[in-house]
Amino acid sequence: MEFEQVAGHAAELIHSLPKGERIRIISHCDADGIASAAIMAISLARAGYRFHVSIKKTGPGITDGIGENELAIFCDIGSTNLEELNNLKCRVILCDHHMIKGELTNGINLNARIYNMDGSREVCGATATLALSLAMDEKNIDLAQLAIVGAIGDKQDKGGFTGYNKKVLEMAIEKDFIEMKEETTFSPDKSLMDSLEECIEPYFSNFSGGGAVRFLQEIGIDPLKKFTDLEEAEAKKLLSGLALKLVEQGAEEFALTRIAPYGQNYGNLYDISSKLNACAREGEEGVGIAACFNDKEAMKKAEELQFRDREKIRHEMSELEKEKVEELSHISYF
């Protein structure tokens, strides 16, 4: 594949630098961007290089503050800022999947779109970055765990992983770094009343403020039980009741169970993606990077940020329930 061949050229550019050289990493402010930056940072550290990570939002000025460096690697960001990248004094490697504006003349472009791949479904920033990581050293395949976290963050798991994302997942499964497990979309580790009230994907209307308890009591299930404690008949009754609830809400597409990727080093990758998204939304991107390095304190902090972020989302959804929906021919809005 030409994409992987060009990744090899980018790896050669990195390895041409003396060990200990500091390399700049600039990445996007979301779960995919944080996962991308972490993949690149870990790969550089393993190869004997120093790194400096900056997480930025899209828009002008993404090259500000780069300073004197031999190489800058842009992950999940930069494809609409190619003029800025071309004006840098250092060489550039771009690992991305977004729409492109212009041409990169100052380095190597690993934007999946120019290699005939669908950047909205088949490749994310993290899987594009992993291609470079694997070209640097095939042993970096363990970082496929983070690449899949990035793909989940960009909703590229919907309908199943495809394209290069699927290839990455299959490689990680083959090497035993990822295992697929069936699970519910709500937490199986908490009481049903808490896990249903806290669930945001899917969101159950009127479950806050005791609504989840009343729902469970109406269908004859103990609210204090965990999903894993239910008998088979009880589990079927619960899932059927929840499905009916979502239909009554007007949900067109929903899933109450899924086959989820679990990483050898990170556990549930859906959960890690949620944590990284929360870190980005709360302005704590550094916590997300540290969590990807498996720092225990950072992971604990990320869990706190995740809870705070979900609380905000649930509050906003609850407030929206009180608003009147305005319907036009093609859209509905609050």
For this structure, the quaternary state is single chain
Major β-sheet annotation:
5 strands, parallel
Q: Could you give the count of β-strands?
A: 10
C-alpha end-to-end distance: 47 Å
Tell me the name of the CATH class of the largest domain. Answer: Alpha Beta
Q: Main attributes?
A:
single chain; 334 residues; alpha/beta; inorganic pyrophosphatase (n-terminal core); Helicase, Ruva Protein, domain 3; 2 domains; five-stranded parallel beta sheet; three-stranded antiparallel beta sheet; 12 helices; 45% helix; elongated
Would you write up a description of this structure?
By secondary structure, the protein is of the alpha/beta class. The chain folds into two domains: 2-175, inorganic pyrophosphatase (n-terminal core) (Alpha-Beta Complex), CATH 3.90.1640; 186-249, Helicase, Ruva Protein, domain 3 (Orthogonal Bundle), CATH 1.10.8. The protein is 45% helix and 15% strand. The protein is built from twelve helices and ten strands. The strands form three sheets. A five-stranded parallel beta sheet has the order 2-1-3-4-5. A hairpin with a 3-residue loop joins β7 and β8 (267-268). α2 runs parallel beside α4 (125-136) and α4 packs antiparallel against α5 (144-153). The longest helix has 26 residues, at 296-321.
Structural topology:
Elements: H1 2-15, E1 22-28, H2 31-46, E2 50-56, E3 71-75, H3 82-86, E4 91-96, E5 107-111, H4 125-136, H5 144-153, H6 163-174, E6 178-184, H7 192-198, H8 211-218, H9 232-249, E7 257-263, E8 267-268, H10 269-281, H11 285-292, H12 296-321, E9 326-327, E10 332-333
Parallel strand pairs: 1-2, 1-3, 3-4, 4-5
Antiparallel strand pairs: 6-7, 7-8, 9-10
Helix pairs in contact: 1-4, 2-4, 2-5, 2-10, 2-11, 4-5, 5-6, 5-10, 7-8, 10-11, 10-12, 11-12
